[in-house]
Amino acid sequence: MRRLVSVIGVLCWAGMVRADVVRSFAIDADQVVPPTASIAAGNGRATLNDTATELSFLVQHGVEQASQATANVRVADADSNGPVVFTLSFASSNSFSGVWSIDSNGVADFLAGRLYLQI
Question: Cα–Cα distance between 67 and 64 in angstroms, integer?
């Protein structure tokens, strides 16, 4: 009986210390494949909530004609282009945010550093 109590205690303790995972990122034309001549730049923060069900974004950028811009989250290895996995709304100003109800594949890609934002 003592051994069972110890295992339950460890699992409960591990669940209580889980916290949001936050990644900050820079946005610039040198990261596009192939690189572009754009001088627009920006930065952002992506936060995976503690239950690993939502990824929230807060982004600031200097893309000209922002009212015509779109922002997509894509998945690929570094130096590669990848498919769109989520489209962020409210990209019509130079500052926007959004929340993605993320699945386990998206969480794995986020934690592995395979997600990127393209405006």
Answer: 8
Residue bearing tokens 């498919």: 83
pLDDT value of position 65: 77
Using an 8 Å Cβ cutoff, are 88 and 57 in contact? Answer: yes
HSE of 107, CA atoms in CB hemisphere, 13 A: 13
Average pLDDT estimate for 24-29: 86
The more confidently predicted of residues 26 and 14 is 26
Amino acid 117 reads L
pTM of the predicted model, to two decimals? Answer: 0.76
| Pairing, β 21-28 against β 71-75 | unpaired
pLDDT of residue 1: 37
Two tokens, residue 115: 């997600």
CA distance 89 to 100: 10
Among candidate residues 44, 43, 42, 52, the one with its CA nearest the CA of residue 21: 52
